[in-house]
Amino acid sequence: MSTIKVGENLYLIDIQAGGIKNFIASYLLKGKQAAIIETGPMSSVPNLLSGLKELNVKFEDIAYVAVSHIHLDHGGGVGTLLKFLPKAKVIVHSRGAPHLANPEKLWQQSRAVLKGIAEMYGEPEPVPEERIIAASDGMTFDVGADVKLTVIETLGHASHHQSYYESSSRSVFPGDAAGIYLSEIDVILPTTPSPFRLDIALASLNNLMSLKPKTLYYTHFGKASNPSEKLQTYSQQLSLWAKIVKQGLENRESLKVISERIIRSDRAVQRALEHIRVHPILSETVFDESLRGFIDFVEKFN
After folding, report:
1. Per the domain annotation, does 251 fall within a domain?
2. Which of 223, 232, 93, 206 is nearest to 166 (CA)?
3. Residue 24 in contact with residue 48, Cβ under 8 Å?
4. What's the CA gap between 220 and 176, in Å, rounded?
5. Cβ of 69: how many Cβ atoms within 10 Å?
6. What is the mean pLDDT of residues 95-101?
7. Structural domain count of the chain
8. Distance, CA of 257 to CA of 244 (rounded, Å)
9. Per-residue pLDDT averaged across 283-300, rounded?
């Protein structure tokens, strides 16, 4: 199991969903109590629990489980995980809360879109309603020893997405609001499934930049320095993809042709292309799921 200390009072657990390393991170934040940020999918909960044991964390000391949104790779494991955490409450956007309590619709939609990837992630189990905190922008959760998590609403990737800000270290946990970070090659890639809202996503990135964070902790994947630069780079990348998609639709180009134009135009994608092609998840999502999010946005709002 891979557990790494990545900051003061902060540890990364590589939960290795489907045996894939360096793709989904869960974070343990320690104060007098503790908080988990992102659970990953149901299938990797045993790995997360092993990581907590490796860090000598008492399950009863975990006060909060904070998820950025309810997509399976971020919050699909919440219901299963809570069975082991007797005192923990789940922090989730108010729009996502009903789907944690009753995940059947979420599961069926995920299977329709992700197909085999959804099966690999596993079916989410329901969360008892009394253990759900339907959060809103600006809410703060204190785990003691001057360690606090503040909710930052960051819509766009999803209508129920929120990031978290830890003030003592000026750290941001952006979920999917800041894209996918390939730390091995220092590249950011879009994660923009339909219904994606470019305009709202760009506003969310501006909100994160206004915090002037010192560090980003990506769910996909890991610790990143130069946060202002990375957030700005991602904002520019989203705008580039949208421009290419708009031109492609005006020219009635196929999905394949639009993808090829993106590869020619986006240096980050060029650097990551071989990584994308061999990756069991990214090979299925970058030029399909994410690109279709842009297409749907342009067709509806341009």
Report:
1. no
2. 223
3. no
4. 8
5. 26
6. 97
7. 1
8. 10
9. 95
Backbone angles phi, psi at 36, to 5 degrees: -105, 135
pLDDT at 302: 79
Domain annotation covers residue 262: no
In this structure, the number of other CB atoms found within 10 A of the CB of residue 94 comes to 14
- From 198, 199, 174, 200, select the one nearest 188 (Cα to Cα): 174
Q: What is the CATH number of the domain that holds 67?
A: 3.60.15.10
Contact between 72 and 281 under an 8 Å Cβ cutoff? The reply is: no
As a whole number of angstroms, the distance between CA 157 and CA 15 comes to 22
**282 lies in some domain:** no
DSSP state at residue 272? H
Strand-pairing partners, residue 29, are 10, 35
DSSP 186: T
Residues 6+ apart with CB under 8 A from 68: 38, 74, 75, 154, 161, 162, 163, 164, 173, 174, 175, 176, 177, 219
Residue with tokens 């998840």: 281
On whether residue 52 sits in a domain, the answer given is yes
pLDDT band at 2 (very low <50, low <70, confident <90, very high): confident
C-alpha separations of 46 from 1, 6, 80, 243 in Å: 11, 22, 9, 42
Range of the domain at 17: 2-229
Q: Which of 21, 18, 152, 11 is nearest to 91 (CA)?
A: 152
Q: Angle 212-219-6 (CA atoms, 0-180°, nearest 5)?
A: 70
Half-sphere exposure of 22 (CA within 13 A, CB side): 9
Q: What is the DSSP string of 107-128?
A: HHHHHHHHTHHHHHH-PPPP--
Q: What is the pLDDT of residues 208-226, one digit of tens each?
A: 999 999 999 999 999 999 9
Q: Where are the beta strands (DSSP E) in 219-286?
A: 222-224
pLDDT at 1: 53
Contacts of 112 (CB under 8 A, 6+ apart): none
Containing 70, the helix (H) or strand (E) segment is none
